[in-house]
Amino acid sequence: MIELRSVTLTYPNGTRALDDIDLEIGKADFVFLVGHSGTGKSSLLKLLYREVVPDSGEVIVDGIRVDKLRRGKVAALRRNIGVVFQDFKLLSNKTVWENVAFALQVTGARSKDVMRQVPRVLDLVGLSHKSRMLPSELSGGEQQRAAIARALVNNPKILLCDEPTGNLDPSNTTEIIELLQRINLKGTTVLVATHNQAVVDRMRRRVVRLENGRILHDDERGYYFRGLGQNPVLSG
Amino acid sequence: MDWGRIQFFLGEVFTNFTRNAAMQFTAIGTVAVTIVMLGAFLYVRDTLATFGQGILKQIEIAVYLDDNATDAQAKTLAASLAADERISSARYVPRAEGLQEMRARLGSDFDTSLLTENPLPNAFRVSVRNADDVPAVAATIGKLPGVAKVDYAADTVTKLLKAADVIGRVGLAMIALLVLTAAIIIANTIRLTVFARRREIAIMQLVGATNMYIRMPFIAEGIIAGLLGAVVAIGVLALAQMQIVPKIAATLQFVPFEVNQLQLAGELLLVGAVVGLISSWFSVGRYLRA
Questions:
Q1: A39 SS3 class
Q2: Set of chain B residues whose Cβ sits within 8 Å of the Cβ of A146
């Protein structure tokens, strides 16, 4: 589903964000992308939805060479990829329903589809009863669920999450991660960039650790720190 | 038709339009001023053109025949004048009639009884359909056999045509500058809207809206601003037409005020819409490429 081959990315200011990355993620996989801030987690996600283009190497998403994609085709790619951020990026003047519907409406969806898809995803994230509320009337966890609903409303094959629990307390964090897992079980490929050690260690899913723009390790059923498990002293 | 989709689009346009009401007023006002100037200019130019054509239509070409010209030559000449498409009428004026006309025109200012013989040649008086053709027709006739001299108010005609041309050019240059100003102000207004909506635009791009789709509401906004400006301008011009033109017409009775007002209004609306379209297209385009 996702494949990176010898990908190198340098920002215009000269910072090397990613250095010779090779990575393969299969259909319906669930992968944690971990590492300190500034190690290239966000950059890697941005490559996938073509917010940035690599200096060299190949970026392949669902069989498409994203690094070679023409500008006019980017929109089509992004309808296939849902993205969720730490700060939710909801529109404050629109209700939950309108925020979710917006993602469909601006891609030219028919109103019939809007009426069908929006309730479906709101039900999936458990926000049906709050669809008429504004983001400011919701808790952080609920706002993130609304953002996830928006990311899913186009039925993407891939869901990218950039620090989805960064602004949430532990109980909301658990809620969101469980939701992501449910979404993954329905067949969506989920890639979560995080530095929440507790979440990663509890889930025991595939863990890819980045450090200074390189992949330090890549473990099936891994831990936040390789081989250490949940050791609060060593891993704190 | 998908009413929900149209409703959503119109909602977007309305939100855009009302977000910077003050700036929007400025934009519409500038467009209005520009189009009032443009409209007034076109109105005056059309009126002058009609007026000028009227004057030029009255200009006759006097074709004086050679004293030695035979009747046959005069007849051939009459035939070739009649055959020329550009000529509306050619009247033969024998020398006797010419003298009578001159007597009538000069009246008591000049005592023609002093004349011992008629100094006038036989002549044709030629009128031309299109005033622009006067010099060319005169030149053609001058080369025909039996013609001694061709005369017309050459200076007046050419000067009038030149003056109209210069006025037209200067006016157009000034209006071009005004249109540019209006376009820049619309573009800036829309940039403000774009800036105010940058979060929405970022999300649209993220969820896969095409650039064309993102652009459309802003373009619509620009076109609406341009059209509203044009409507205001047309209102002002209509008012001026009703209040001012009758007064001028009363003093300048020889000037015909015959402008096709519907066509002019249509042209002005088109100008407004095009200015709005182009300026908004560029101002959003620059943002989307960045």
A1: coil
A2: none
